[in-house]
């Protein structure tokens, strides 16, 4: 089956949640984005964020991890139902990345994905280019991240 046959265009699928702890915020930041508001809870109080918050890249990485776990579950579900899941990956890139609000220690972000469009690749028979909207909202329903991604699908 093709993605567009499984997931109606414009319909959001919730893919899971991730809770950002102070410990994992600092751990990620110490390796990849060592800015003070990601590293030191006390010093972060004096920044424009007013508290320890996750790197935007951390929120993106958590979206990806959540999607991979979701897709493993979807693949198993489709096989159990006698279907043939689409083969996905890799991504051909992303655009319009927006970090809409800070994600603070203790926040839980629920992620989602919406199929925006799907088109066959003229250069590769049997391949499809899917464009998806990826998003996340915090526990208060406030959007915190949004971006568009393209995902290759092949036979």
From TrEMBL:
InterPro entries: HotDog_dom_sf, MaoC-like_dom, UPF0336/Enoyl-CoA_hydratase. One of its GO terms (molecular function) is (3R)-hydroxyacyl-[acyl-carrier-protein] dehydratase activity. GO terms for biological process: fatty acid biosynthetic process. Pfam families: MaoC_dehydratas. CDD domains: YdeM. Signal peptide: none annotated. This is MaoC-like dehydratase. The lineage of its organism: Bacteria, Pseudomonadati, Pseudomonadota, Alphaproteobacteria, Hyphomicrobiales. Residues 18-114 form the MaoC-like domain. It comes from Rhizobium rhizogenes NBRC 13257.
